[in-house]
Design brief:
about 190 residues; alpha/beta; 2 domains; five-stranded mixed β-sheet; three-stranded mixed β-sheet; 6 helices; 8 strands; Prevent-host-death protein
């Protein structure tokens, strides 16, 4: 896909040196990357952290779709199988009435890929779960819960059939990342109670 110069925001190396935060603000407002020019040639593209993480997540999802195009993972019943293939979303549901939610979770979250706690929370809220980020220390609380229990529990806001739906995000903090709020999702369990 070839982009015309006017279809995307642009800036110069000089502007990046002068005020990099202004360029990040430009990317945030335009909701896309900002092409950085050096002597009338594109030198690179600047993205916000959220945009970059979203691109990585979408890339991982697309790779997963390509590798699993002929193999659909369908799991139901008790969560006893520990041998899910790497980088495939492993969502175990104890109820057939949660099929739509399982499909949505498979689309929004990918196992084996680093994701920020903030991004995880935003995606879960978008799916109808109650946020875990309460107040200033919300991300820290999420990571503490993950460290202490090995999982982060979410509760679905609406109650289908009058039952409470709990999502358990099983994972660990990403030790390879330089950022403290990165985690790797291993599995996702859905329970109705």
């Amino acid at each position: 896909m070839e982009l015309k110069k006017l279809e995307v925001p642009t800036s110069s190396i000089t502007e990046v040196k002068r005020s990099p935060m202004d360029v990040f603000d430009q990317a945030r407002k335009a909701e896309t990357g900002v092409y950085i020019f050096n002597r009338e040639k594109v030198a690179g593209v600047m993205l916000t952290q959220e945009q970059y993480e979203t691109l990585l997540q979408e890339l991982a999802t697309l790779r997963q779709l390509v590798t699993t195009e002929t193999e659909e993972i369908e799991v139901s019943g008790p969560a006893t199988n520990e041998s899910f293939p790497k980088n495939r979303t492993a969502i175990v549901s104890t109820s057939e009435s949660l099929d739509e939610l399982v499909s949505a979770l498979k689309q929004y979250l990918v196992t084996g890929v680093s994701i920020s706690a903030k991004n995880l929370d935003e995606r879960m809220v978008a799916l109808g779960f109650i946020t875990k980020k309460t107040g200033f220390g919300g991300v820290v609380d999420m990571l503490n819960e993950l460290t202490e229990t090995g999982k982060i529990n979410y509760q679905l806001r609406k109650k289908p059939n009058g039952k409470i739906v709990i999502a358990e995000i099983i994972g660990e903090q990403d030790s390879q990342s330089q950022l403290f709020d990165k985690l790797i999702i291993k599995k996702i369990y859905l329970h109705e109670i």
